[in-house]
Amino acid sequence: MAADNRLLADRWFTEIADEADCAFSLRIRGKVFEEQSPFQKVEVYETESWGNLMVIDGYVMLTTRDNFLYHEMMSHPVLFTHPDPRQVVIIGGGDCGTLREVLRHPDVEKVWQIDIDEVVTRAAKKFFPELCESNDDPRAELLWIDGLKWVREAAPESVDVVIVDSTDPVGPAEGLFGKKFYRDCLKMLRPGGILVQQSESPLLHGKLLREMRRAMIEAGFADTRTLGFPQPCYPSGWWSATMARKGQAIGGFRKAAAAILPFKTEYYTAEVHEAALHMPAFFKRDVE
Question: 28, 45 in Cβ contact below 8 A?
């Protein structure tokens, strides 16, 4: 996704999505963090009304105000689709928001979060501490290593769910969008296990979505399903997550359990989950 992102003189941070001829801007008070890691440049800005804003290599990653949409939809739909998720792997997710949501599920026994860049987590702990409140949960193991290598070397049929909470398919995340990686995930998953990956905007990135879904099937997954959800700080304001299941159709989800959540959510409900499964006509025509 090409972009020309700049801090404008009137104190607006703007990310321009050239491929879609659009932009997203937030009025800021100033930059509060900047560090160039061996992998990427991580910045945090204080905004006027969206809380803190994290930017990686010039691209908006999250804001205090709307990150719950992404984190809840990257975790709860897949965990309620799987019949009994016990062992979960998160690839990426260095801000720890998805980890927090996964650990809200009391039956989850173990979560590995594998992000290549510890700088992201250090910045999140300081500027988004609410996202890191479950980092010390005894069920969580945080590793700052190469996720591609970890998945490749993982024991076969050792986990139930893989969540790929990555940046856009450039730089350190580029390898997370390929058939080889999906084959490694398939091997690591138990029968009936599910992979879910953030899959960009249904409105702007149809080609990427088509290629991703095709690569998942060619890698050996039996079925895919894409769920859409709002995400104001990302290009077009509409984002998606794509699930792929090992050995069987994705089917429905544990709607009765989702209807009586034992924890609080800001966006996710059983009804929201049901609605997200029904993508609009253009998506079925152009992507599926």
Answer: yes
The active-site residue out of 57, 95, 165, 184 is 165
Cβ contact 121:142 at 8 Å = yes
Q: What is the pTM of this model?
A: 0.93
Residue listed under structure tokens 């010039």: 58
pLDDT at 3: 45
pLDDT band at 169 (very low <50, low <70, confident <90, very high): low
- Cα–Cα distance for residue pair 134/120, rounded to 1 Å: 16
As a dihedral over the C-alpha atoms of residue 70, residue 63, residue 203, residue 281, rounded to 10 degrees, the angle is 40
Two structure tokens written together for 102: 């996964």
* 136 among known catalytic residues: no
In sequence order, the 6+-apart residues with CB closer than 8 A to the CB of 216 are 182, 195, 224, 242, 244
**What digits encode the pLDDT tens for the residues 186-243?**
999 999 999 999 999 999 988 889 999 999 999 999 999 999 999 999 999 999 999 9
